[in-house]
Amino acid sequence: MRLIFVLGLLIPLLFTSACAERVEVPPAHVGKVLTKNGYKPEVVLPSKFRLDMCLFYCDKLVTLTIADFGHLEKFKVFMPKDQLNMSFDVRMTGAISDGVIDHVFDRIPPVNDNISVKHVYNTYAQPVIRDVVRRVVAKYSINEIASSRESLSQELFQEVSSALKGTPIEIKRLGLADIQFPKVITQAKERAAERRELIEQEKAQFEIQKIQMERDLEREKMNRAIAREKAIGQKEVNDLLAKSVTDKYLAYRTLEVLDKMATSNNKVFLPVEALGTMGLQHAVFSEQVKQVAGKKQ
């Protein structure tokens, strides 16, 4: 009777143990089986399987997240060179190094059978990163940071990567972001930008005035060239008249004028002495000028 009772207790237990727990290591994770004597040495890659059958103490699966992670650290650093506080963010991408997985399983306790990458980061990386970033940034002035942000991000990446060697965290990318300069620096930069804008406007206005002055200068040159050509033409006319109008020519032209006056209805009788007056000579000379001018055209 007693034997039957014992068998009645053992049979359900054996039946239950025959159906060992089904577990899974999801993608971007690795796992280890935790026994009563500690972790098994094998690292389990993403897969589904059943744990060993058990009676009194059952094994369990502990997973570790190994996916790349993004993280942001906020800083407010006192800048010794400027005696001002400056706020900024550091954005990074990291992962757990492959060669230290056993170390993580041994040193980080799981929560709900999982070791999160955040737990690993907070334990090994965060204190180091915050110390390195503060130390590097404090070496520079705010203006140097503003003008050399890219090179400073590269320096931070190299310094942080070097400081994290030998830890479970590997940094793949790191850089400065959302830099918030002190208000006094921002206002100074705005005033400087306004001054540069005014200078550019003055330069533009000067260039416009320069073009206008050059255009006026060219116009004056053209006017002087035209006046010079007119003067040269007038001089040539005068030289030609001086050479062509002789006493004999004036006497000949006088007779022509008198002949026309004789046939005209508007007759004016002059004394013989008036034939040599300046008025008559002027009339003759004017007619000659018109003829010379007509030939020049």
TrEMBL record:
Subcellular location, record wording: Membrane
Keywords linked to the UniProt accession: Coiled coil, Signal
Pfam hit, one: Band_7
Chain ranges of the Band domain: 75-207
Coiled coil: 185-230
N-terminal signal peptide: 1-20
InterPro entries linked to this entry: Band_7, Band_7/SPFH_dom_sf
Membrane topology category: Single-pass membrane protein
Protein name: SPFH domain-containing protein
Organism (species): Microbulbifer spongiae
